Amino acid sequence: MKVYITGIAGFLGSHLADWLLAQGQHRVWGCDNLVTGDFRNIPYACSSNVAKLDILDIRPVDMYGCDVVYHCAAAAYEGASVFAPGYVCENIFAGSARVFSAAIEAGVRRIVFCSSMARYGDIGPPFNESDCPRPCDPYGIAKEAAERLLRSLAHVHHVEYAIAVPHNIYGPRQRYTDPYRNVAAIFANRMLQGKQPIIYGDGSHQRCFSYIDDVVPYLGMMGIEDAAVWRTINLGPDEGMVTILELAQMISRLVNMPCDPIFLPGRPAEVPDAYCSAATARRCLGFGSAPQTSLEDGLRHLVDFIRKRGPAPFRHHLGLEIHGPSLPTTWTTKDLM
């Protein structure tokens, strides 16, 4: 099978490419604009098939001959999207529209869209695929709108689709120099520099974290297995919830430093507790009943990766469009405390 991956130099896209190539029966093509992706993440076996290309500029010719498109590329700034709605919505919704239309015109058989747990908003966990989405921020709104667009286009043009909802994925290759997202990587990067973690709110927010290697095989299967067609499927464990404060404490033990977090005001539109039910993934894809990688082991892999590549200062690359008293100061200064 010939597949195309948008965002192939990113965290999720590069691991997906690795998994597909490891199956020994797939050829992988892809694109990335390298704004947040890293060329070092791309598997060597398909590096010659990767174009430096923004999804807003993608064309049918880029996907000709492909059977499946995995749309992983995203400006995944959920929290910051309330301060950069134009950029985020253009990338998520308009970019997805370009990918979907190009894939359909190219004759692709199936489109797998990577949505987000942000689609559920504040309906109360555990989130089920049958729940009516109620997104709270521009990122979640754009993701859910892109889902609706895909369903409409797939129905009209007779193309198979599957919607994956990965949540709180972490692990090696995660972008750790980004101050806006990826809480585990942010904590680890700061602590490896001898700095205390910054927590927004009181640290009681609950999350269920998904190690990358435990999720990617099932994302890959969504482009292959018939059981995934026409479905929205949560991908990630539904047990082992921890608070953000507990997460910081776990990482502090791994880097062997005391944990004395810096607490700042909570971020606007952030959902207090967010985790999903994995029942559909278990039923349709054989997803495990418990995480194969413990949170401690997964965090150790993440810390080792950051140590190897080198802890680094945060890069404030996102152009914020709205400023005001609720804007976190950590997103506007290059000299984080």
Describe what this molecule looks like in 3D.
With 337 residues, this protein is of the alpha/beta class. It has two domains: 2-169 and 210-235, Rossmann fold (3-Layer(aba) Sandwich); 170-207 and 240-275 and 293-331, UDP-galactose 4-epimerase, domain 1, CATH 3.90.25. 32% of the residues lie in helices and 15% in strands. The chain is built from eight helices and 14 strands. It has helices at residues 11-22, 85-105, 138-157, 183-192, 212-221, 244-255, 279-285, 295-309, and strands at 2-6, 27-32, 50-52, 68-71, 110-114, 160-166, 169-170, 198-200, 206-207, 210-211, 232-235, 242-243, 262-264, 273-274. It has a seven-stranded parallel beta sheet, with helices on both faces. A three-stranded mixed beta sheet has the order 12-9-14. Strands 7-10 form a two-stranded parallel ribbon. Helix 2 packs parallel to helix 3 (138-157), helix 4 (183-192) packs parallel to helix 6 and helix 4 (183-192) crosses helix 8 (295-309). The longest helix is centred in the N-terminal third of the chain and has 21 residues, at 85-105. The radius of gyration is 19 Å and the shape is globular. It starts with a strand and ends in a 28-residue tail after the last helix. The model has no long low-confidence stretch (mean pLDDT 95).
